[in-house]
Amino acid sequence: MSGSFDVAEALDGGLSDRERAWAFIRSFAGAWGDPLTEGDGTPGAELAQAEAVLGCSLPTALHELYTLAGARTDLVANQDPLLPPHEMFVHDECGGVLVFRSENQGCAFWGVRLTDLDQDDPPVLVQARHGWVPFMGQVSVAFVELVLSEALFGGGGRLYNACELPADLLDAVPEHFQRIQLPDYPMWTGPEEFPVRWFSAPGKLLRQDGLGVLSWLHVRGRTRADLDAICEIVPGRWSLGYTESLSSEPPPF
Predict the structure, then answer these.
(1) What would the mean pLDDT of 226-232 be, rounded to a whole number?
(2) Sign of the alpha-carbon dihedral angle for 153, 158, 162, 168
(3) Residue 211 DSSP class
(4) Which domain of life is it from (predicted)?
(5) In percent, how much of the chain has pLDDT > 90?
(6) What is the pLDDT of residue 3?
(7) What is the pTM of this model?
(8) Which of 148, 174, 234, 247 is the most exposed place for a label (fewest CB within 10 A)?
């Protein structure tokens, strides 16, 4: 069953509301790992304590995501993690931004403007190298992207690879894989890698950073056979040997 799960099919029609986002995350968790259980959420007491320290209430969507999967590190904390509640903080730029996610070396942050905290499912900003910019229109959509990105780099890197796409391979991805219906969004590293787009096939997940020559393609297979199939379809100069892991060599951003 897990090998037949196709992210693009599961997200066909887009994300009309946050309930659909949470339903997708539940389905994805069960297909690519272990099903979510009640124990996978952040305890309410931890969220309440974080709100007391921060001096503000979390938006409904942010609260719901922590309650759903805040303790599932395989889903939210492989590369650029969802912050534990006690590590959330307010960045003083843009009139104040409540930060809930960080790049693994602190090079970028994701958050919600303090002025938007009264919305149930507010827009999300990312602190890119050229300043804070819009990331996603809703927290719930940003969390679908988070789960996909963290899955991409999960599994100790054994089922991950990446390559630059020269001109003759730019059409290979949309030709052979289905576009996942997420909005175009910026990569924090800079505007030259806009837009980021996702593609999939059963058991296969691909993220293309930028549409120009030498954009980066990051791929993950549900199994070794899935990863091998991607690398055969897109005959790029893959940066990681299959025996290497991300612990020995960082992702090429």
Answers:
(1) 95
(2) negative
(3) S
(4) Bacteria
(5) 81
(6) 64
(7) 0.92
(8) 247
